[in-house]
Amino acid sequence: MDGFDAWMKYLFEYEHDRRDRPWDEPEPEWLARYARDDTPVAVAERILRLFSAAGAILSPYGDEQVGRGLVEIVDGGDIHVLGGKQVPRVLRSRGLRSIVTLFAEVFAPRITVEDTKHMPKLQYVCFMFFDIAPIDLGEDTVLDVLEDILALESVACQRAALHGLGHAHHRAPRHVPPIVDRWLAKHRGAPQELRDYAAAARVGGVM
User: How confident is the model over 41-100, as pLDDT tens digits?
Assistant: First the structure.
């Protein structure tokens, strides 16, 4: 098993929060063989590889597994390398832009109905992606990514992008309103609650 496969198995098959784990259970191969020698560039390359072909690569996994693994990557995890200067700019940019493919190929087709009361992990990481990912929401590339996700024909993805734009407002107050305005002009038939959310995001009024 190579490093990428071991990483995938660790993220999407290993139950990180399982409490009844036997004391003598072998350490996951990712931790035992690869993690200690990891580098920021290698992390960025793995994320780019995964996100750029996310639909196909994640197809063997169920929604709960995908959600759990993506939370491990996004919520303060590996994705932080795309928010700093530890990797070359071109690789950072490609990694950030690959987030659009993740949304288009995974979140859009898998989240067709939103659960507003008991949010599953997959829906959580979709909606909170740009809230929990340690990346600069005011960066031009990230703003482009948010606008591209907002253009997807998926309410869940649109809501996630609006949520991210709302948080980006304090970093880029002049750039966010035009992005939201363009979406509002093209989506006059969108659900009113989503248009209301867009209006709130336009001025940074999201929680």
Answer: 999 999 999 999 999 999 999 999 999 999 999 997 899 999 888 899 999 999 999 999
Q: Cα separation of 43 and 121, whole Å?
A: 23
Q: Where do we find the tokens 């001025």?
A: 203
Tokens encoding 109: 């087709």
φ, ψ of residue 19 to 5 degrees: the values are -90, -20
CA pair distance 121, 123, nearest whole angstrom: 5
- Quick one: which of 148, 56, 172, 167 has its CA closest to 105? 56
Coil, strand or helix at 111: coil
* pLDDT, tens only, 97-116: 999 999 999 999 999 988 87
Contacts of 2 (CB under 8 A, 6+ apart): none
Residues sharing a CB contact under 8 Å with residue 39, sequence separation 6 or more, in sequence order:
none
From residue 6, alpha-carbon distances to 19, 31, 104 in Å are 22, 9, 25
| Residue 81 contacts residue 138 (beta carbons within 8 Å) | no
Cα–Cα separations (whole angstroms), residue 63 to 12, 37, 120? 10, 30, 9
Report CA-CA distances (Å) from 83 to 7, 53, 103. 21, 21, 18
Please give the single-letter amino acid code of residue 11. L
Tell me if the pTM is above 0.85.
Answer: yes
Q: Cβ distance 52 to 107 under 8 Å?
A: no
